[in-house]
């Protein structure tokens, strides 16, 4: 250690530094133990930890406090001296004011309204502003014309200078210079309030160093710098070992198991776990320590991850940012998020949120939620009692929220907006049950209230002309600000004095511990690749003579981290470095960190006694490190290692776990036949009734039937947002209107008679009184997607209706007998009252029961002839082949090899059987399909082979039974596959394929990877 005239002490380890500080403190207090000594630090937290270490050194086993040992940051110091010198405390702009001012100046300069990108830039420039706040205006102005600056850097510098003027901010450089001249007259008070100063900041602005130099005439100022050490590894092998782990998860587990052993020898607060990359390690380390029950302190989850109130705020602001004259911004995705965020305890509004959520899903409501209010009665028409209650709850909730959101429209300044947001949140959540003293929600709520009620109001005090309140744009910016200041902010967890320290390597600057764990010693992570700050590179800081700041800038991160580690680890009693060989985010190579001494580098010294290699996670439990077996600690690890682990409740789960431990070709790994040999996986007796659509699924792809109807997977996408118009959803709407129309005509007795056409104005009446009248309901529930495409389809359907009403009688109700409409949306097969529709296999006597609904049923006057009309949204040409009719109108002769005729649906066959059952006197029934709009050419197709002479339906039912018996449900692959409209393999995440094996040769042939 050496000292020069400016009291600069160089040190090579934090322990040496702390001993030096302690000895200087003792000297300073040798006459008066109450004499103040001040540690000048970067942050209060780092200062607190450092002060604790120094006091611990002083204690040497016996508690021994140091009186009047103060902590100050540079801004605390300047304010304190200003206060003593009786000059006004320098005005430093709050970050939101700074960003708002910069944003305004940028938009004026660039004449741009690109709010989102500009706000991110404004926030980056605000960082530059703060870094330069101790640089004098004259220096910055001179630099502005320096040719070495890029255009972007000049732009940034110019904005920084303009912001200073706009906010009339005090130049901290001048303030420091001024204060330097006022120290003399106040030296006595300064000596009793601040005393000797130890400068322990990572980088000190030049203006502060100059002020400190002046202060040295009042009291001693001690500066420190790290000893320059040539050619020595950052992490030496002296007191260290290296653990090589297969992946970060195993690495973290091993660290926590080692810490458990440490706690027998060291106090928890003398142990530190440090990582180079929080996104890779922070969550894993925290969870592993929690699972092991080890107390820790450090930065925890973000407020957004932990707080319901903060997430609620984000949804509110997101809604307000999307709000404009036409849209409320409160769309179904935001509504769902608000409900799923939970804990809504709206005052005076009691609702069952779970039921409301499923009601919205089941009633197909999309788009702007406040539009739903006017159509809820319509949407809930067919609801049962509990569903009606859900609808009422939804209505109450939406009306309440609409009222709240509407009130924001009258806010004309930031103060009003902030207050309104706080009141809304206080009303929306039951704060009494949510907030616990000292808990996360309390911290989040206090942060939000300070930001909204105090800091937001500062924006209203910006100089005139500085910022006008443009609501939508500003809320977008406010949302970004809240995300940075609240949502993404990490909460500190734990008690500083009781737990293991967990944090980023840089947080250990100048601290000392007995045992230190450093994770991630793999190249690319330690050190991480660094690049220079494009807006304020070190070269500009050097031009401004800010050498300390330049040294500490982003492009020198590698050097700085190396220095933090070296001084931390040099005198630490026990150091355990670890590194993952794979599984790292970013796909890093398996290369040991350049910081490691050769003896700790497994590639350079494979046989080194200081290196422990865990081949696998399981293998790591057998390692003995420093005489201790790295045995399991947490419940999860115990379960992993306990050979006789048994799940207590779920037998299916247990069996599945057993299967996964010893994978074999059994029911869990593709051999469904094994399962089916004990009991059929599908049978007409145990598996219930079949609808036409289930049967069709089997026809087009047996595997699809298996996944949906045997395994019971749900294949509809649970999306909260419909971007495109879906014709089939409009088909449902059309069906509903036709049903209403027919039923009302039936009740009024105005249906056309047997074989009679509709009156000439029917099409027009249907369109005006049903089709168009209720279209709003479809649009307001957000089902129309892109409006233009939707309206084009609506017009096609409307045109097709003229044809339909003019021709339906001749095509559906004349031959073989005049028919009259007898019912719309007629159900069949559900119970005895409706008439059970069944097919009996004459060979086995097995009954197959069928179930469904028919759009329209007709009957002749003598009741002997029945008719079925089904509306279709697709195209007639493609459907014709599906019901076995060739393009020329003949019978399809195509057959599946050795099996039944090649059809793709049995719908017409089933409808015919159902019509005969519904009309029990009927001896014949005909089936027709109406195609509307059919690409602008509406038409009606007669299903001429619905009487099923080929016994197609029975053939399919037998095949389903056989599949159920054998467990063989073969995926359809190749050109016949209907993958384009099947989502099943996508949901499972693995494409179905046909595999044929030759047991003799062992050859395997795979056909089709359908979901490419
Ligand atoms: S994606 Fe293809 S193979 Fe998979 S279930 Fe659907 S139709 Fe069958």
Structural class, from helix and strand content?
alpha/beta
Give the % helix: 40-55%
Listed once per kind, the bound small molecules are: iron/sulfur cluster
Mean pLDDT: 88
Strand order in the largest sheet? 9-8-10-7-11-12-6-13
Straight-line distance between termini: 68 Å
Can you summarize the main beta sheet?
Answer: 8 strands, mixed
Poorly predicted sequence stretches spanning 5 or more consecutive residues: none
- Which term fits the overall shape? elongated
* Residues in β-strands, percent: 5-15%
Layout of strands and helices, then pairs:
Elements: E1 8-11, H1 14-28, E2 37-40, H2 44-59, E3 69-72, H3 74-84, H4 95-110, H5 115-131, H6 137-144, H7 151-166, H8 172-182, H9 187-193, E4 196-199, H10 206-215, E5 221-226, E6 240-245, H11 248-262, E7 271-275, H12 278-292, E8 296-302, H13 303-306, H14 308-322, H15 332-341, H16 353-362, H17 369-372, H18 376-379, H19 385-408, H20 414-428, H21 431-434, H22 440-458, H23 471-487, E9 490-493, E10 500-504, E11 515-518, H24 538-543, H25 547-551, H26 557-569, E12 574-580, E13 611-613, H27 617-620, E14 624-625, E15 628-629, H28 635-641, H29 651-661, H30 672-678, E16 690-691, H31 692-700, H32 702-710, H33 727-748, H34 762-771, H35 775-780, H36 787-812, E17 819-828, E18 837-840, E19 847-860, E20 865-872, H37 876-882, H38 907-918, E21 924-931, E22 939-942, H39 952-966, H40 984-988, E23 994-997, E24 1004-1007
Parallel strand pairs: 1-5, 2-3, 2-4, 4-5, 6-12, 6-13, 7-10, 7-11, 8-10, 11-12, 16-19, 20-21
Antiparallel strand pairs: 8-9, 14-15, 17-19, 18-19, 19-20, 21-22, 23-24
Helix pairs in contact: 1-2, 4-5, 4-7, 5-7, 5-23, 6-7, 8-10, 11-12, 14-15, 14-23, 16-19, 20-22, 31-32, 34-36
Bound molecules: iron/sulfur cluster.
């Amino acid at each position: 250690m050496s000292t020069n005239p400016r009291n600069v002490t160089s040190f090579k380890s934090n322990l040496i530094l702390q001993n030096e500080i302690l000895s200087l403190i003792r000297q300073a207090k040798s006459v008066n133990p109450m004499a103040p000594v001040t540690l000048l630090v970067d942050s209060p937290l780092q200062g607190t930890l450092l002060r604790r270490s120094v006091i611990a050194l002083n204690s040497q086993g016996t508690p021994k406090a140091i009186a009047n040992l103060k902590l100050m940051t540079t801004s605390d110091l300047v304010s304190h001296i200003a206060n003593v010198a009786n000059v006004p405390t320098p005005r430093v702009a709050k970050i939101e004011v700074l960003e708002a001012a910069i944003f305004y100046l940028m938009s004026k300069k660039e004449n741009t309204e690109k709010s989102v990108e500009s706000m991110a830039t404004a926030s980056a420039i605000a960082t530059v502003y703060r870094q330069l706040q101790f640089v004098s205006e004259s220096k910055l102005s001179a630099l502005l014309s320096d040719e070495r600056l890029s255009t972007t850097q000049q732009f940034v510098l110019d904005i920084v200078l303009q912001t200073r003027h706009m906010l009339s901010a005090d130049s901290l450089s001048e303030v420091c210079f001024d204060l330097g001249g006022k120290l003399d007259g106040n030296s006595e008070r300064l000596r009793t309030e601040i005393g000797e100063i130890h400068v322990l900041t990572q980088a000190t602005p030049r203006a502060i160093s100059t002020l400190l130099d002046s202060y040295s005439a009042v009291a001693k100022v001690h500066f420190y710098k790290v000893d320059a050490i040539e050619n020595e590894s950052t992490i030496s092998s002296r007191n260290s070992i290296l653990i090589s782990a297969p992946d970060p998860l195993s690495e973290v587990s091993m660290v926590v198991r080692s810490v458990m052993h440490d706690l027998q020898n060291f106090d928890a607060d003398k142990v530190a776990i440090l990582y180079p990359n929080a996104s890779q390690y922070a969550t894993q380390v925290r969870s592993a320590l929690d699972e092991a029950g080890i107390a820790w302190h450090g930065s925890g989850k973000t407020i957004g991850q932990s707080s319901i109130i903060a997430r609620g705020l984000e949804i509110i602001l997101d809604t307000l940012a999307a709000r404009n004259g036409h849209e409320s911004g409160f769309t179904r995705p935001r509504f769902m998020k608000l409900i799923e965020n939970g804990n809504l305890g709206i005052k005076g509004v009691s609702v069952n949120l779970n039921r409301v959520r499923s009601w919205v899903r089941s009633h197909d409501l999309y788009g702007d939620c406040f539009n739903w209010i006017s159509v809820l009665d319509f949407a809930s028409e067919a609801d049962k009692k509990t569903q009606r209650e859900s609808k009422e709850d939804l209505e109450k909730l939406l009306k309440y929220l609409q009222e709240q959101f509407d009130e924001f429209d009258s806010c004309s300044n930031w103060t009003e907006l902030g207050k309104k947001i706080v009141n809304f949140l206080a009303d929306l959540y039951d704060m009494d049950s949510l907030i616990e003293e000292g808990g996360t929600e309390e911290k989040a709520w206090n942060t939000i209230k300070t930001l909204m009620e105090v800091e937001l109001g500062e924006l209203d005090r910006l100089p005139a002309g500085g910022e006008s309140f443009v609501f939508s744009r500003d809320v977008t910016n406010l949302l970004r600000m809240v995300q940075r200041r609240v949502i993404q902010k990490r909460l500190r967890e734990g008690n500083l004095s009781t737990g293991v320290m967990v944090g980023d390597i840089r947080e250990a600057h100048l601290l000392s511990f007995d045992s230190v764990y450093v994770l991630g010693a793999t190249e690319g992570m330690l050190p991480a690749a660094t690049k220079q700050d494009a807006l304020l590179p070190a070269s500009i800081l050097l031009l401004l003579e800010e050498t300390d700041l330049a040294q500490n800038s982003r492009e020198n991160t590698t050097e700085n981290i190396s220095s933090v580690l070296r001084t931390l680890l040099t005198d630490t009693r026990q150091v355990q470095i670890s590194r993952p060989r794979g599984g790292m985010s970013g796909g890093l190579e398996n290369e040991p960190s350049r910081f490691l001494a050769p003896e700790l580098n497994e590639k350079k010294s494979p046989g080194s006694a200081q290196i422990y290699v865990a081949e696998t996670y399981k293998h790591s439990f057998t390692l003995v490190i420093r005489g201790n077996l790295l045995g399991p600690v947490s419940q999860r690890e115990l379960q992993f290692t306990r050979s006789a682990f048994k799940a207590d409740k779920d037998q299916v789960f247990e069996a599945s776990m057993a299967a996964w431990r010893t994978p074999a070709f059994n029911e869990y790994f593709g051999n469904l036949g094994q399962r089916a040999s004990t009991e059929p996986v599908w049978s007409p007796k145990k598996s219930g009734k079949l609808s036409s659509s289930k049967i069709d699924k089997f026809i087009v792809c047996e595997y699809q039937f298996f996944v949906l109807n045997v395994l019971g997977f749900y294949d509809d996408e649970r999306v909260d947002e419909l971007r495109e118009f879906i014709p089939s959803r409009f088909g449902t709407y059309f069906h509903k209107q036709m049903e209403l129309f027919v039923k009302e005509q039936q009740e009024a007795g105005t249906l056309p008679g047997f074989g009679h056409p509709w009156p000439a104005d029917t099409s027009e009446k249907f369109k005006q009184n049903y089709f168009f009248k209720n279209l709003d309901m479809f649009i307001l529930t957000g089902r129309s997607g892109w409006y233009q495409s939707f309206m084009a389809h609506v017009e096609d359907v409307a045109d097709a209706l003229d044809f339909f009403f003019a021709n339906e009688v001749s095509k559906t109700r004349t031959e073989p007998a005049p028919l009259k409409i007898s019912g719309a949306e007629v159900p069949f097969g559900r119970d005895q009252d409706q008439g059970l529709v069944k097919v009996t296999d004459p060979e086995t006597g097995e009954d197959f029961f069928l179930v469904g609904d028919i759009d329209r049923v007709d009957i002749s006057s003598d009741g002997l002839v029945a008719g079925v009309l089904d509306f279709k949204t697709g195209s007639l040409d493609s459907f014709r082949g599906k019901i076995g009719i060739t393009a020329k109108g003949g019978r399809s002769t195509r057959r599946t090899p050795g099996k039944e005729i090649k059809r793709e649906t049995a719908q017409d066959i089933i409808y015919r059987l159902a019509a005969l059952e519904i009309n029990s006197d009927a001896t014949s029934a005909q089936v027709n399909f109406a195609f509307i709009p059919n690409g602008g050419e509406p038409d009606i197709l007669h299903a001429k082979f619905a009487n099923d002479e080929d016994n197609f339906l029975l053939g399919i039912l037998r095949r389903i039974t056989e599949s159920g018996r054998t467990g063989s449900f073969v995926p359809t692959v190749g050109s016949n596959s209907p993958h384009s409209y099947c989502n099943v393999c996508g949901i499972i995440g693995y494409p179905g394929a046909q595999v044929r094996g030759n047991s003799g040769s062992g050859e395997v042939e795979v056909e089709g990877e359908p979901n490419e």
